[in-house]
Amino acid sequence: MNVRAKGATFERSIIKVLKQIGYEFAASTRVSSRLLDDCKIDINFVPFLIQCKMGYAKNRPKFDQLYKEMKIELTKKIPKESELHTYPYILLHHLDNRKPEHQLFTTTTTFGMELLRIYKLYMDGKLRED
Fold first, then answer.
1. 30: how many CB neighbours lie within 10 A of its CB?
2. In the chain, where are the structural domains located?
3. CA–CA distance, 109 with 103 (Å, rounded to integer)
4. 56: phi > 0 → left, psi -120 to 50 → alpha, else beta; which?
5. pLDDT, one tens digit for every residue, the chain (130 residues)
6. What are the residues whose beta carbons fall under 8 Å from the beta carbon of 64, sequence distance 6 or more?
7. How many whole angstroms separate alpha carbon 112 and alpha carbon 51?
8. 105 with 50: CB under 8 angstroms?
9. C-beta of residue 2 within 8 angstroms of C-beta of residue 14
10. I need a surface site. Which of 4, 44, 49, 103 has the fewest CB within 10 A?
């Protein structure tokens, strides 16, 4: 399977998980929005700007460069009033599916800390429906 096909398969697997956790309308931008796909965003109808990368064992994608490219494209193609400009950016990168350390989730420190704060509330039982 070539890298492009692996990437599409990876996107579909992420979309499946997003749907299972409640983002029922999650869809690939390849199908749902050529405009967002052109802005380097791979998944639509979620409150995140998600880009999926598969492979690249030697020349790994650089989060800062991808983030900058996505922001430039969004600025050029999406009205500045759009809430898309407020969504956090997430890079999901799988070198392969064999080892956990090869499955990466990268985001900004600000959003990462917010995720950790919410996780702590959950672990402390403050977000559970028990």
1. 15
2. 3-123
3. 18
4. left
5. 666 777 788 899 999 999 999 999 999 999 999 999 999 999 999 999 999 998 776 778 889 999 999 999 999 999 999 999 999 999 999 887 778 888 899 999 999 999 999 999 999 998 866 5
6. none
7. 16
8. no
9. no
10. 4
